[in-house]
Amino acid sequence: MPTVLALETSCDETAAAIVRDRTVLSNVVASQIAIHRPFGGVVPEVASRAHVENVGEVTAAALAQAGLDWGAIDGVAATCAPGLVGALMVGLTAGKTLAMVHQKPFLGVHHLEGHIYAAYLSEPTLQPPFLCLLVSGGHTSLIHVKGCGDYTVLGKTRDDAAGEAFDKVARLLGLGYPGGPIIDKLAAKGDATAFPLPEGNISLPEGGFHRYDSSFSGLKTAVLRLVQSLQDQGVDPLPVADLAASFQAAVVRSLTKRTLNCAVDYGLTTIAVGGGVAANSGLRQQLTAAAADHGFTVLFPPLKYCTDNAAMIACAAADHLARGHESAWSVGTQSRMPLTEVMGLYSR
Ligand code: KG4
Ligand code: ZN
Question: Does the C-beta of 179 come closer than 6 Å to ligand 1?
């Protein structure tokens, strides 16, 4: 397998990494969480500027950490879609420039394919087919992984992503940003049965509910109404731990049920989880237990490979490069791009 240096700048982490044979030789992440915290979320223009400031430094650090020079690098990769266009542009331009200067092949990488490849980093012997549950601040998808570049999206959210729901509910409870880890911690001290909350079912015209798609905006509104009604009743302080636990339980119930539905219907006995919400302790417990009941295996890669990082991008790019895939210099950024169009990024 080739040795690939990759850059990832699709949102608020400036990351560089080097991967060979599904082994991480270096993994550097400059997080912007502290910069965006005062705004309560990621500010795209601020993210782009911070990427410009950090990208050179993280690239040099990735080479130094791996103890390699450019002679040892077989290809350069950068995330090119989907994500914040200005942010993506920084990594893509830096990656193309480095590839040109050092005369290496260049590969644009789909961010979600990177998240899928995090599973191979934690389990290098993993073979498709498997089911990937990708739950982050921007995405909630159930993906049937059939091979390199060969994916079918079986389920998705119809509105907010799971992580986005955690962040929005944390904000309305006045808990700070990012909300997922804060709610997770608080939920451990609360009663998950205190408030019955909807799991967000999608009704089908013919009756019944969609087995794989989720919806979290109704759940968020239900928490908002509940908070307003508690405040109207003069409840002070709000029972934030019980609210957090009840909300988290509804999200976990929704994700666990839909993931198991997919795994059973498609006969996929291995489930890999990716994205920042994979850190959630409730999801880890319940999905692992539910899968074990069916005799399925669940892989939760280490958190550093679940949240945005460049090692997962390098791992995906190395697999494509080994198959002779390369991107044209004209490859551009796209804020949205279906996973099914991944192979369009490569000219051969
Ligand atoms: O994958 P990620 O780092 O970035 C995106 O690509 O979005 O995911 C960030 C998301 C945030 O919404 C954050 O609140 C959520 O992951 N998150 C969690 C936990 N840790 C991070 N959500 C629930 N429980 C957690 N422990
Ligand atoms: Zn991501």
Answer: yes
Number of domains in the chain: 2
What pLDDT is recorded for position 177? 84
pLDDT at position 348 is: 63
**Residues 278, 108: Cα–Cα separation, whole Å:** 25
Are 122 and 301 in contact by the 8 Å Cβ rule? The answer is yes
Q: Within this chain, do residues 143 and 260 fall inside the same structural domain, yes or no? A: yes
What's the domain range around 55?
A: 3-119+307-345
Q: Is the CB of 277 under 6 A from ligand 1?
A: yes
Looking at the fold, whether 85 and 150 belong to one and the same domain comes out as no
User: For position 242, what pLDDT does the model report?
Assistant: 98
84 and 139 housed in the same domain:
no
Distance (angstroms) between ligand 2 centre and the Cα of 238 equals: 32
Question: Angle at the Cα of 110 (from 104 to 115), degrees rounded to 5?
Answer: 110
Q: Identify the pLDDT of residue 41.
A: 78
Residue in 111, 117, 136, 303 to alter for ligand 1 test, most ligand atoms within 8 A of Cβ:
136
Ligand number nearest to the C-alpha of 161: 1
The predicted pLDDT at position 213 comes to 97
User: pLDDT under 50 in the chain at which residues?
Assistant: none
Q: Which ligand 1 atom is nearest residue 162's CA?
A: 12
Whether the Cβ atoms of residue 22 and residue 315 lie closer than 8 Å to each other? yes
